[in-house]
Design brief:
Blueprint lengths: L1 E6 L10 E5 L21 E5 L20 E4 L8 E3 L20 E3 L5 E6 L7 E4 L4 E4 L1
Parallel strand pairs: 2-3
Antiparallel strand pairs: 1-2, 1-9, 3-4, 5-6, 6-7, 7-8
Length: about 140
Amino acid sequence: MLRKLFCAHCHAALSSEIDVLSGAYPADRVWTGYEAKPLTAPGTAIVSSKPMVWSEDPNDRSPLQFAPQYWLNPADVAEGVENVADGRGLNGCCGPSGHGGPNQRCRKCRKDVGTLMADCWTDLVFIPQPDGTYWTE
């Protein structure tokens, strides 16, 4: 189903049309070393009923522990989002690991809209915040 992602704060378009497919983390995904690779092809996203990052410790919950969760190719939101100004969540050795939570903001209103994971040991993926974004068909 084709959908478009928008900022919930200012209603700016964050993506062009994306084919959103129901699914889970690809079982056939093979680790090939320390190089971030896109989880999805450009123009395609996965909506999963399970979060990509989670913690079993109730006192140390991951900021990305929500579902459903949309996994987008970062190229699909490159025109609409940018790194947060304060550097929050941008830690990692080769890029942001994303485990610190939202690190991307809307280019128009500068409000948090999602998390970019792009470190050498993570998938290359953008995960929109459910309270900062919405989808239209």
